[in-house]
Design brief:
Blueprint: E1 3-9, H1 14-23, E2 29-36, H2 43-50, E3 54-56, H3 59-64, H4 67-74, E4 79-82, H5 91-96, E5 101-105, H6 119-128, E6 133-140, E7 150-157, H7 164-189
Parallel strand pairs: 1-2, 1-4, 2-3, 4-5
Antiparallel strand pairs: 5-6, 6-7
Helix pairs in contact: 1-7, 6-7
Bound molecules: glycinamide ribonucleotide.
Glycinamide ribonucleotide (GAR) binds next to α1, β5, α6 and α7.
Length: 190
């Protein structure tokens, strides 16, 4: 039986899409479920395009019910992948998936992390501080935002005339290139 991934997303889902494409014909790993807290995220269209089931859930279901964990257990999900998912992971999921929840952050942690630091907020902060480089961090999740063990980082140069949008574009390219491979490597090493 293949190892099974569930992806959580809140946004357009370009990372989720890249991960689904990467594992589409993989011999040992498959994406078995997409989960989102947003009706208008990419979950539905990615699910339809790749033939993967998706689940949209409310804040109450996520924090105060066993709907999510039941679904994950029913599908025998091995690992949870956060791809632009913005809610803090509750303790019951951390306990059920110890060292098996990965997140991607669009900057070089430990800088530019923490609550409220997501998406363009991160790139604007990096730009305001006139950093000469930014990058991506793939890390395990724990009880705090962006604090778990770092598994992988990659950098991209920032030119003097780059805008926050330029930084965002370059960082997203790095994410699509490295997240699927890092997930594969980590999962096969467990
Ligand atoms: C990605 O850049 C991801 O790193 C970021 O949200 C974006 C989602 O894009 N995540 C965070 O900022 C988490 N703190 P996508 O929906 O196109 O994959």
């Amino acid at each position: 039986m293949k190892l099974k991934i569930a992806i959580f997303l809140s946004g357009s889902g370009s990372n989720a899409r890249a991960i689904c494409a990467y594992f589409q014909k993989h011999a040992e790993i498959e994406v078995a479920l997409l989960l989102s807290n947003k009706v208008n995220s990419g979950a539905q269209s990615i699910g339809n395009d790749f033939g993967i089931p998706y689940l949209i859930f409310s804040r109450d279901a996520f924090y105060n019910s066993d709907n999510i964990i039941s679904k994950l257990a029913q599908l025998k999900i091995d690992i949870l992948i956060l791809a632009g998912f913005l809610w803090l992971i509750p303790e019951y999921l951390l306990d059920a998936y110890p060292d098996r929840i990965l997140n991607i952050h669009p900057a070089l942690l430990p800088k530019y992390g923490g609550k409220g630091m997501h998406g363009m907020h991160v790139h604007e902060a990096v730009w305001k501080n006139k950093e000469s480089e930014s990058g991506i961090t793939i890390h395990l999740c724990n009880k705090e935002y962006d604090k778990g063990r770092i598994l992988f980082q990659a950098t991209t140069k920032i030119n003097a005339d780059d805008t926050p949008n330029d930084i965002a574009k370059n960082v997203l390219m790095l994410e699509h290139r490295h997240y699927p491979e890092t997930i594969e490597k980590y999962l096969l090493s467990l």
